[in-house]
Amino acid sequence: MKPFTTLTAVTALVDRVNVDTDAIIPKQFLRRIERTGFGKHLFHDWRYLDDAGTQPNPQFELNAPRYQGARILVTRHNFGCGSSREHAPWALMDYGFRAIVAPSFADIFYNNCFKNGILPVVLKEDEVQALFDEVEAISGTQLTVNLEAQEVSTPNGLKFSFGVEAFPKRKLLQGLDDIGWSLQYEQSIDAFESRQQQDAPWMVISA
């Protein structure tokens, strides 16, 4: 997983509330077990006019030329609600998003973002609206999300602070998922297992 420190990037807007995980990645695309390959199906039913995904819907926000290559997404309340499928952050990450800004997120989705390299940023509703206004006004607007400083800033000089718990922040700064974090203690784990084999051999299952 790539570390997240500071990101300055083109920002896309999805002006919808209660965006659920089935809209983010519809159920028919959940057959893969890898984390990659889901980006092309992100928001499939909104992005395309056909089931095959060959006819882009010109009315959907992410299909607008001004948002191509966006890596920051700004949206509305309760983003990521619905089922707990981890494929939702996989799809967003695979599409290219590394940060999502909203007034609120569904809890499970929020935590899954950190585990998969995406920074979910919670700002006040009026602050999110200010970002909407500036991004809408100028095509290709790039916001800056600074995890170390816990701040979102705009080209026009707006700056908004956000909160984040210390542990997920540390993991994201270092680019570590749960497995990567555990592997930092591999030597200690091996030492414990060796002691366990000596102290309690009856608990060891032979191959």
SSE arrangement:
Elements: E1 6-14, H1 21-24, H2 44-47, E2 72-75, H3 87-95, E3 99-102, H4 107-115, E4 119-122, H5 125-137, E5 142-146, E6 151-153, E7 159-161, H6 166-174, H7 178-183, H8 186-199
Parallel strand pairs: 1-2, 2-3, 3-4
Antiparallel strand pairs: 1-5, 5-6, 6-7
Textual characterization of the structure:
With 207 residues, this protein is of the alpha/beta class. The chain has one domain: Alpha-Beta Barrel (Aconitase, domain 4), CATH 3.20.19. Helices cover 33% and strands 15% of the residues. The chain is built from eight helices and seven strands; from the N terminus they run E-H-H-E-H-E-H-E-H-E-E-E-H-H-H. The protein has helices at 21-24, 44-47, 87-95, 107-115, 125-137, 166-174, 178-183, 186-199; strands spanning 6-14, 72-75, 99-102, 119-122, 142-146, 151-153, 159-161. It has a seven-stranded mixed beta sheet with strand order 4-3-2-1-5-6-7. The longest helix is centred in the C-terminal third of the chain and has 14 residues, at 186-199. The model has no long low-confidence stretch (mean pLDDT 91).
